[in-house]
């Protein structure tokens, strides 16, 4: 199996896993990886249910928007493209609407670092990027501004972006962004969470 075919299969498997884990709901969210040496982004198609998505449905495209295969890419392909343009180290992007982290995004709040995992996996707190209309390049341009040194960020009134050198790293970061948000919200119900300024 070619490297591209393996990655398309991995995108389908991780997307379904994310759907079952509640990181994706309905057809929301999208996932991509970037073959930087070939300028090819592999990205989930728009508005397709994760239970039926197949490797052949994953769209191949260039960062300038040129679509190389059948199908319509995620409506957020510009978000993914701007992040790849903004950081040479990022080769996978995972956009979710995971509920606890997205609650912070709706409040336009950063997620404070209260768990040690925030430092191990996320670079500390998770910053919230400035609001931009979904589908526009600005969503990615504003995200790229706050991402340096971070494993992910929030998109105001929209959701979460987790990044990584590969799909596995982006995935685990998306899990920890949701987990740190959930535990903060729970801790706030019974007391005042202590923010870890450093490890
Ligand atoms: P797509 O189905 O076009 O990827 O859009 C889902 C989404 O989450 C938009 O923010």
What descriptive keywords fit this protein?
binds 1,3-dihydroxyacetonephosphate; seven-stranded mixed sheet; 199 residues; L-fuculose-1-phosphate Aldolase; 6 helices; globular
Structural features, described:
With 199 residues, the protein is of the alpha+beta class. It has a single domain (3-190), classed as L-fuculose-1-phosphate Aldolase (3-Layer(aba) Sandwich), CATH 3.40.225. It is 39% helix and 15% strand. Strands 3-2-1-4-7-6-5 form a seven-stranded mixed β-sheet, sandwiched between helices. It is globular, with a radius of gyration of 16 Å. The N and C termini lie far apart (43 Å). 1,3-dihydroxyacetonephosphate is lined by residues 27-30, 44, 46-47, 74-76, 97, 134.
In CATH's first tier, which class applies? Alpha Beta
Number of separate domains: 1
Secondary-structure element pattern, one letter each: HEEEHEHHEHEEH
Distance, first to last CA: 43 Å
- Evaluate the radius of gyration: 16 Å
Low-pLDDT stretches are none
What fold name goes in the CATH topology slot? L-fuculose-1-phosphate Aldolase
The CATH homologous superfamily is named Class II aldolase/adducin N-terminal domain
User: Which structural class fits the helix and strand makeup?
Assistant: alpha+beta
Approximately what portion of the residues adopt beta-strand conformation?
15-25%
How do the strands of the widest beta sheet line up side by side?
A: 3-2-1-4-7-6-5
Distinct helical segment count = 6
Number of strands: 7
Helix fraction, binned, reads: 25-40%
How much is the average pLDDT?
A: 97
CATH architecture: 3-Layer(aba) Sandwich
What are the distinct ligands in this entry?
1,3-dihydroxyacetonephosphate
What characterizes the major β-sheet? 7 strands, mixed
Shape: globular
